[in-house]
Specification:
By secondary structure, the protein is of the alpha/beta class. It has two domains: about 35 residues; about 200 residues, TIM Barrel. It is about 40% helix and about 15% strand. It contains nine helices and eleven strands. Strands 2, 3, 4, 7, 8 and 9 form a six-stranded parallel β-sheet that branches. β2, α2 and β3 form a beta-alpha-beta unit. α2 packs parallel to α8. It is globular, with a radius of gyration of 29 Å.
Length: about 260
């Protein structure tokens, strides 16, 4: 008994220290003094997304045209859209505005939206937030000088963006816009192929991408517009398609009511 008693005391002491240590660690964790993995907020910040399309019960769709280089077909597009009393959104580069102010004015006077496609068609992720702000303001200034209206929407060149660029655009009070239906007209697809791509993919709330100087877009556009109208779609500029007030954007880029 005299031999075993010290051993039992050591065991009891170890147990008391172990119990006390656990209690201290638990208290520290509760007080936030110990950073256990379970107590650390590891959730990543939500990715910043532009609007690709809009959750709409009504059959509404928007046609958009990017204008960055050529100007061969702008007046023809104006005439085609006027034939159906349809208004679209044109995203124009500041350099394009400088070269073709008469076309910018013609688009505006025909009732189409003139929106921002950057000043020099740069890749926005390669720019700082301040550089993006300066670039967009330069383009806005050029558009407003011709139309008297300052753009509220912006489409990143090449469809290229990151969290920094989307935050910078929204910090200016502008809404970044992408598309969910790509006509691929810039690939010089035939008019029939362009028409098939667009009409097979459009759904309520879609934003369709065209270009103002693509080879077969003027040939394809009448059939696309006629199909959409026959299917009961209202064709409206993007500013009339997107939601105002509180909203969310899901992982696909669809703008939804909050």
């Amino acid at each position: 008994m005299l031999f075993k008693q010290p051993s039992m005391r050591v065991v009891l002491v170890k147990k008391r220290w172990w119990t006390a240590g656990c209690c201290l660690l638990l208290a520290a964790a509760i007080l936030g003094l110990v950073n256990y993995p379970a107590a650390v907020n590891t959730a990543a910040s939500p990715r910043q997304l532009p609007i690709y399309c809009v959750a709409r019960d009504q059959k509404m769709v928007s046609l958009s045209f990017d204008a960055a280089w050529g100007n061969e077909d702008t007046q023809q597009l104006i005439d085609i859209l006027a034939r159906y009393n349809v208004h679209a959104t044109f995203f124009v580069v500041g350099d394009w505005v400088e070269r073709y102010p008469e076309s910018v004015l013609a688009l505006h006077e025909a009732g189409h939206e003139i929106m921002n496609h950057s000043d020099s068609h740069a890749h926005l992720p390669q720019l700082s937030a301040q550089q993006i702000t300066d670039d967009l303001n330069a383009c806005n200034d050029k558009i407003a000088a011709v139309t008297g209206v300052r753009p509220t929407l912006m489409r990143p060149p090449y469809g290229d963006y990151d969290d920094n660029s989307i935050r910078a655009i929204r910090a200016m009070g502008m809404e970044p816009i992408q598309w969910d239906v790509d006509s691929l007209d810039w690939k010089d697809l035939s008019a029939a192929d362009i028409t098939k791509r667009v009409t097979s993919k459009v759904c309520p709330g879609s934003i369709v991408l065209f270009h103002n100087a693509a080879l077969h877009t003027p040939e394809a556009l009448p059939g696309i517009v006629e199909h959409l109208l026959q299917e009961g779609y209202s064709i409206v500029p993007i500013s009339q398609l997107i939601l105002t007030g509180d909203y969310t954007i899901d992982h696909t880029g669809r703008q939804c009511p909050a």
